[in-house]
Structures are given as C-alpha cells and as structure tokens.
From TrEMBL, chain A:
Naturally occurring in which organism (per UniProt): Thermalbibacter longus
Keyword Membrane in record: yes
Transmembrane parts of this sequence: 87-104
Organism ancestry: Bacteria, Pseudomonadati, Thermomicrobiota, Thermomicrobia, Thermomicrobiales
Superkingdom field: Bacteria
Name this protein carries in UniProt: Zf-HC2 domain-containing protein
Sorted UniProt keywords: Membrane, Transmembrane, Transmembrane helix
TrEMBL record, chain B:
Lineage start: Bacteria, Pseudomonadati, Thermomicrobiota, Thermomicrobia, Thermomicrobiales
Organism: Thermalbibacter longus
Residue spans of biased composition, Basic and acidic residues class: 7-22
Protein's recorded name: RNA polymerase sigma factor
Region ranges (Disordered): 1-22
Gene Ontology molecular function: any one: sigma factor activity
C-alpha cells in the first residue's frame, strides 16, 4: 500500500470543495483507498457531530422577537446596552491580597486606602444579612452621584470616545480608541461599591494630591490599569489594547497623562 | 465520483443574501429582520460554545445584530451578510474576553459561597462531591486556545468553509486550514482522553 501523500489541510480543502479539478479528482480517488485519510475524515465528522448534538439550536423565539421589535422601533438604533445580572454588577471583588499588601503604617492617611478597607467592611455587612450598603459615608469618604461627571470625549494620546454605557444606575463605562490602536476603558462607580481588581502587583503613585493605584503590567514600567478616587467617585482606567506589541500595557508616563487629564476635567466640573 | 460534501452556503442562499443585503442598505427593517430569523439561533449557538456562558452568548448575539444593523451601509456588495455578522460577533466576543482578563470580576455569589465555604468547613458533609457544571464538550473547548476554538467552531459548528473562514478572520486559506486541522486534532485528543477517564 502506498503512503499517504495528502496532508490533513489538503483533505480539508477537498472536503470544503476548495480544490481545483485535477487535484480534486486525485484526492477523491485517494481518500477511497487511504486509511489515514479515512480516519481523519471520520474525526472531522465526529467532531462536527459532537458539537452539533451537544449544542442544539436554542429556543430563541422571545429574544428574537424582542430584537426584531427593537429594530423596527429604531431606524437608527443606538448601540445596545448590555443586560447584566444585578448581583454580578455589584462588583465587590477587592481581593484580600490587595488589602493585605496595603502598607499598614501609611494607610491611615490614605483616602484610597480607607475606601478599599471600607469596601471590605461593606462586604462583611452584606454577608451578615443586612440588605443594602448602609449610609453614604465610610471612614470619612463622602459618596456623591457617580454619574454626575463623565470624562471628556477626547483624551491625550489621540484617544477619542467610541462608546459610553451606563450599565446600572450608578456606573458609567467610557470606551476610548485612538488611531494608533490604543484602547482604554474608563469605569466609574460609587466608591462604596468596590473595585473589580485582582491585581497582586500594585504601587501607589500620585497625580497632584490624588493617590492613584497603579496596576502593573508584567512588562516593566507598563500599566494594566489605574484606580483612583476623587469627589466620591471611584475610577478604574483599564488598558484594553496598546500598539507596538506591548501586549496590552501602556507606559506609565503616558497613562499618567490620561489620568491627569481626567482628574483636571473632574475637578473643573466639581467646582462649577 | 461523488461530489465532496460542502459546508458553505448553496447558491440559492447566496442569491437571497445578496437580495437581502441590498434591500437592507435602504434600511429596510423588515428585510433586516429576515436576517434575524435566519441567523439568530445559529449565531447564538456559536457564541454559546465560544464563550461557554449562555447569558453572555445571548447578550453578544443581540449586540452583534444591532451593530450589524447600525452599520449595514459598510457591507460591501459582494460580501455576504453571514460572514460579516460572525466577524462582528467575534470581535465583540474578543473584546469581552479582553475586558474580563483585565477585570478579574468576581460575583457576589462567589464571594458569599467562598465565605460560607470557610465558616461551614467543619460542618461540610464528607460525601459532598463537586459536580462539573460544564459538559465535557465545553470543558474541552475551554482548553483550546481562543484562536483554535474560534476556527474549530466556525468550521465544524457554524459550517463555514476554510476559505470563508480565511476571509472572515483576515488570514490566508492555508492558515485557516492549518488552524481548523490543528483544532480538530487537539479536540479529538482531549475529548477522548477525558471521556476515557470518566468511564474508568
Ligand atoms: Zn491519505
């Protein structure tokens, strides 16, 4: 028996109907006599069956008619707001590592540190059966309407607002892109709702008098995210994408420019 | 000789797509809704397996259709609607993955469960067994790299040909076939290994 001279990729091209006449005829004949190709073909078929049988088409009638109604209602539809599970949106995920890493001696003077500790207290209270986060004050931090301010449509590095969503009564998400491929998300919410962070490698930096938590990217000097609290609003800046193979991290100096810009706009809006 | 089986669209379907997309360009919502009827369920099924999260899959499906509708003018004449829709959906899913990587979001339920887990540690019955919540197919899919998972599901679940996948992912047909082939090999190996381990 001859050895198999049809690569798995070529067999796939044949099955897809992507081979030209002569080669197609050759492979068609070959497959009938080649046990290797027959096994490959069986594996392809089995994979398809496993996926299809285990994933029946969903019963989508209600969703589909809602979507169709939405389309009929809006000749120029706005970009959709994502439906979220309410509990999931109460993102109370300040990891203990962050708390434990917080330097005990300096935390007494840190506003952000109080917020972080306050959030954990909130979680504990919720777990003890109290319904809602009590009061609007934790360790002297006053919480204001977190939607009272939104970051400007243009930020340094040529970033422009591409999408803004309010997934929940007290949160705002602003998505920015630049021509060079930088993509960031600025999430803001009331400081009593906590942070969505699980970062071990953090450092405190300052922008003016504002403490900013720098979530370090694995690449030295790069930023994965920034967190700060200002006028009762907790901000998270998350770097979604950065150009030049930075694997998602932005250099610290450039990110601080953005943070500084948002803080300045926020201060100006708050003093009005 | 039997013609090889084809996974792509037949010619009638392509013609009807052309007609639909042309009509949609005039923002004919009724006509667009024919697309919704035709592709909603398959796209949601694809996204379910891609993400492993039914709610996210439903959200992304809605978002993909609305985005496609709002950008229908961008659809080139000779480009069929279906691959374009899947590309939009795929980009949305990738963005969501990236967001989730950055924001290790933990749910309150998880937090409550973990605290309970600690406080009730001693009272925990010995015979409590952790039941995997994901079926075997999803467990195996989760173990594939995102690149291989995308390609595998586009070919073997959504029924695109390797050339359609190449256009959809903006790669060469050879690269697309390489991905699908590797993905099938890896899927098969992992699936049979796990299935065998379960039976023992
Ligand atoms: Zn062969």
């Amino acid at each position: 028996m001859r050895e198999c001279d049809v690569a798995a990729e070529e067999l796939l091209a044949y099955l897809d109907g992507c081979l030209d006449g002569e080669r197609e005829a050759y492979v068609a004949h070959h497959v009938k006599v080649c046990p290797v190709c027959q096994i490959r073909q069986a594996e392809l078929e089995e994979t398809k069956q496993l996926l299809k049988v285990s994933t029946p088409l969903p019963n989508d009638e209600i969703e589909r008619s809602q979507l169709k109604a939405e389309i009929l209602r809006n000749p120029h539809p706005p970009l959709p707001r994502r439906r979220r599970r309410p509990l999931l949106m109460v993102v109370l995920a300040v990891l203990l590592s962050l708390i434990l890493l917080w330097p005990a001696d300096s935390s007494a003077n840190l506003q952000l540190g109080r917020v972080v500790r306050g959030v954990v207290a909130q979680v504990e209270k919720s777990l003890l059966g109290r319904r809602e986060p009590p009061g609007d004050r934790i360790s002297g931090v006053l919480f204001r309407d977190s939607q009272a301010f939104v970051p400007p449509a243009e930020l340094p590095l040529g970033l422009r607002l591409s999408d803004r969503a309010t997934p929940g009564l007290r949160r705002v998400e602003s998505h920015y892109r630049s021509e060079s491929g930088v993509e960031i998300l600025v999430v803001q919410g009331p400081a009593d709702q906590g942070l969505a962070l699980g970062w071990r490698d953090v450092e405190l930096v300052y922008v003016g008098d504002t403490e900013v938590l720098w979530l370090k990217d694995p690449r030295r000097g790069n930023v994965a995210g920034m967190v700060w609290e200002r006028h009762g609003i907790l901000f998270e800046l998350l770097v979604l994408n950065a150009p030049q193979g930075n694997e998602g991290g932005l250099p610290l100096e450039e990110t601080l420019l953005i943070v500084r810009h948002i803080i300045a706009a926020h201060d100006a809006a708050s003093s009005e | 000789m039997n013609p090889p089986p084809r996974h792509g669209l037949d010619h009638d379907a392509i013609h009807s797509e052309r007609r639909l997309s042309t009509a949609s360009r005039s923002r004919d919502a009724d006509t667009f809704n024919e697309f919704v009827d035709q592709y909603y369920a398959p796209l949601r099924r694809y996204l379910l397996r891609l993400t492993g999260d039914p709610e996210l899959a439903a959200d992304l499906t809605q978002e993909a259709f609305l985005k496609a509708y709002s950008r229908i003018e961008q659809l080139a004449d000779d480009e069929a609607f279906r691959p374009w829709l899947y590309r939009i959906a795929l980009n949305l899913a990738r963005m969501e993955f990236r967001r989730r990587q950055r924001r290790r979001v933990l749910s309150l339920e998880w937090l409550i469960e973990s605290v309970r887990g600690i406080s009730h540690w001693l009272a925990r019955p010995d015979d409590m067994v952790t039941v995997p919540t994901r079926d075997l197919v999803q467990q195996v899919l989760d173990e594939l790299s995102p690149t291989l998972r995308e390609a595998l599901l586009l070919h073997r679940l959504a029924g695109f040909t390797s050339e359609e996948i190449a256009r959809l992912l903006n790669i060469s047909p050879e690269a697309a076939r390489k991905r699908v082939t590797r993905a099938v090999q890896r899927f098969q190996a992992l699936y049979h290994e796990r299935a065998g381990a379960r039976e023992e």
